[in-house]
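Slide 14.
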Amino acid sequence: MTFGVGHDFTILAAAALLIGLSKGGIGGPLPTMLATLMISQRASVATAVALAVPMLMVGYAFALYTYWGTWDRKHSWALIPGGVVGVGAGLFLLRGLPDRSLRVGLGVAGLVVTGYKIFSHWRGREHHQHRSWHGPLAGLLSGTASAMLNAGGPPITSYLLLQPISPTVFMGTNTLFFAIVNLLKLPGSLAAGVVEPAALAWSMVFCPLVALGVYLGRYFIKRIHPEVFDHIMTAILVIACVWLIATAYL
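Slide 15: predicted structure.
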């Protein structure tokens, strides 16, 4: 993939801003998915995923500063090991599966876990029976989906929304998990040969726009009621999953 025309620059600039908004707490996984899909119009999905990683790392660096220390240690330790394993599995699958299979599979899986979350919420959190394997499984699924399509939001979001935590703790735990995951994805993508260093350099040019999105997202997230936040995140999850499935057939 060679960048050098105005349309390429516009796509990367828009992707950087979208990723910043997502890391600031607005839109959940949808902006990052949209950013990846935008870049994929000029490259393969594997390359698009890799090109978004530098922007994601910058976004998570700002987000970590913003949410530093607000994560839940218990849930973080439950999620992160599975996420690390998932990155390796995701990069392996990224090279071997066709794009349509990846999009449809992730979309369906996301709808299943979202449906489970909605059902559990309808029954009430007191009826949700937490199991020790829930966290590792959510981490594994999110790490795998993130490595394959930058779409790791649904499993971990469904898991965290079932926990009695505040929006700030939600964002802190989510930020820590994906900061580690994306830190592993960059060398993994280079080692797998899905992207060239020169292409990654172009994506880094637009990373300053990520900072703007992070702080805009942080401004709005502090002013949202927890119950409203829960409803918004659930709606975004459904939209994101349907978007993945629909784009597989476009």
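Speaker note: Residues 6-247 form one domain.
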